[in-house]
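My current task is to audit a protein record that another person submitted. I need someone to confirm that the token line plausibly describes how this chain folds. Take the sequence as given and treat only the tokens as open to question. This is what I was given:
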Amino acid sequence: MPINTQLHIIIFFIAFYGMSFAQEQPPKKLDKKARKELKIATNYQNTKALVESGNFDYEADWVFPLGQPRISLLGNVNRLRFENNILEANLPYFGTRYNDGYASAGINFKSEIDEYKVDFQDDNYRILITFVVVDEKERYQFDLEIESDGSGRLYFASNKRNAQTYSGLILPIKKK
């Protein structure tokens, strides 16, 4: 066999072996992406189970008053507690109040939840909760958008106050 032919055969086997080796090992970026997707899906399932239980806290760490810079809430009482269809609210409020005959420093009440709706958006790992609370002096409308990791944005509106947004986390209720 001429040397040229032998050289071509050797090159062919080296190329064939190299191609088969490359196909056997998946790219590392795909593994990293798959791990990230699995983590997001697992976090979402845990968050979804917590919301489905109906008993959890939303703890705000930032507030975004209308027309003002954000304000840190770390170190303050700043939560909504969902427990057995009762909402207990203890959130600071930094906006304008209208026709307010009482001097409430925040959003503070304990009342039954009306019009509670949950939309589980499984395709994009998000949960949207909308609910209304009506007490003797005010009607509160809330929208809570929750990400797979439990972080969420709370949008607040009222018939007596400017709208306000909070960012925070949903967490299991801490037993005392």
